[in-house]
Structure prediction request, 278 residues.
Amino acid sequence: MHSDTGSTRRLRGVAAMVAAVACTACLDTSTLVTVKPDGSGTIQQRILVSTDGLEDALGGMGFKSKGGSTKKSGPPKVGDLRADAEKIGDGVELVSVEPVTAPAGFQGAVATYSFPDIRKLRVDEFLTPGQGAEPSKGDDARTAFTFTKTPDGTALLSIVFDEKPKKKAKGDTAAPKGGPGLDDAKTREMVRTLFRGFKVGLEVEVAGDIVRTNADHVNGRRITLMAFDMDALLADESKLKHLDKVLSPDVSLAEARPLLAGIEGIKINKPIVKVEFR
Prediction:
């Protein structure tokens, strides 16, 4: 390991920050939720994973894992995706898993799920596919779907984003003091390497005609709830200073939204998105 200089301490801060956001440098995932007028529907999730993996990126910069080895990532396993169905929501079932053509340095698959009731989906679990982890509960759930039928026979779908910062659980470690040191050129280059290719997208498509909606990003029957392209953020030098704030669980969505404004490839919709369709 390198000597404990100020620069290295900053790099360690970045490494800790990256680990805290669950290996984001390895992930490119886009999720499409299609909802029918009865509230049932499907989830189609395209998942690309870096074949090098985060540990290889860190290893190449002098950060070794225990035993001095690094791990290779691979496409999500069917068993983990089946476990994901349970954490995504009650009654969700894995329908199929198909390999996809991926760009160089990535492997991937498209997983399709079915669900009987959109109100029982745990939206936040879409963002960490292939982990087979326990579902978020209570205050940990940050986003929710509501669904009702109107007297006119239309369906009304609402997506509610919790704007408050995430509550800290017991045992949570404090974020590295002093931020990731993004004023340092070497630190910025390391961050670019770690987060290369990280993208997360979440869209909703209604199986019918939209009567009205307040959504900001609409294309036909499809609404983009969120699109986050880390490469686009890292390419904007004026926004880099906000990176530690954007990734911090102590920062609310309401606070992060203006920090990300104007960056091509990044979209965050309203706190409450409503769409009425028939």
Observations:
- Helices lie at 6-20, 53-59, 78-88, 185-194, 230-235, 237-240, 243-247, 253-259.
